[in-house]
Design brief:
Blueprint (H helix, E strand, L loop, with lengths): L7 E6 L18 E3 L7 E6 L4 H11 L5 E10 L9 E9 L3 E4 L2 E4 L12 E2 L2 E3 L14 E6 L7 H11 L3 E3 L2 H11 L3 E10 L10 H17 L2
Parallel strand pairs: 1-3, 1-4, 4-12, 5-10, 10-11
Antiparallel strand pairs: 2-3, 4-11, 5-9, 5-12, 6-7, 8-9
Helix pairs in contact: 1-3
Length: 226
């Protein structure tokens, strides 16, 4: 790890609710706000709004001013061994519904040769190359994410995603963070807390507050140990 180095860190979330650091602050979408906490680093907050497009836009505007982007939020789990309220680190992600419907068969952008030729994709996957490097070590479970523009909430939709991608968790922003930060060559980490299982939609089973509380603890631990 880097020792005694003051870093500029940007904590990014889709909503203010997902970021306990923002509880007492007034933050507008796309506005960077400084965090007045006793960290050894300079920490700012950014709320982007929900979805990949807004996340990519605001990150592209601000990320190059920082040495580390920490993306946080809630997620749905596809796997029983990634339970409610647990916190995970996304090691790789895909834009799971970017492609074409070819007579009822989904084909991804790489399969139809429409993906960017910028060498940051491995097939359709985006991988975080900075995990467990010199800047930070991660002891949290490292998982495969899928990023969707429409959150899964029916058996039919879920079965298609599982068959095509076999992901561990689902978000609406993760791959956008991977893409923007890889393109800008800015170190990043994506931490997500499991608020719900990916299943036919039933919000009565969700544990949003408990998940966010655990997420906050892990983010604090990460920053304090940089």
């Amino acid at each position: 790890m880097l020792i005694n180095l003051k870093l500029k860190i940007l904590i990014v979330s889709a909503t203010q609710l997902e970021n306990r650091f923002a509880n007492s602050l007034s933050i507008n979408f796309g506005e960077v706000v400084g965090l007045n906490e006793a960290f050894n680093h300079e920490v700012d907050l950014l709320v982007t709004g929900v979805g990949a497009v807004q996340t990519a836009f605001w990150l592209t505007r601000y990320a190059e001013s920082y040495q580390l982007v920490i993306n946080i939020g809630i997620a749905g789990s596809y796997k029983s061994d990634i339970p409610l309220e647990s916190v995970v680190c996304i090691k790789e992600d895909v834009f799971g519904d970017y492609g074409v419907d070819d007579k009822g068969q989904f084909k991804s952008l790489s399969e139809i040769n429409l993906l960017d030729t910028n060498n940051i994709f491995v097939g359709d996957k985006l991988i975080n190359p900075w995990l467990n490097a010199d800047l930070f070590k991660i002891s949290l479970p490292q998982v495969k994410g899928v990023t969707l523009s429409t959150a899964s909430g029916s058996k039919e939709a879920i079965d298609k995603i599982v068959t095509r991608w076999n992901p561990d968790i689902e978000t609406m922003e993760g791959a956008a963070v991977f893409y923007a930060c890889r393109m800008l060559n800015v170190k990043f980490i994506c931490l997500r807390a499991i608020s719900n299982m990916v299943e036919p939609r039933d919000r009565s089973n969700w544990r949003i507050n408990e998940a966010i509380e655990n997420l906050n603890k892990e983010v604090r631990y990460l920053i304090e140990n940089l």
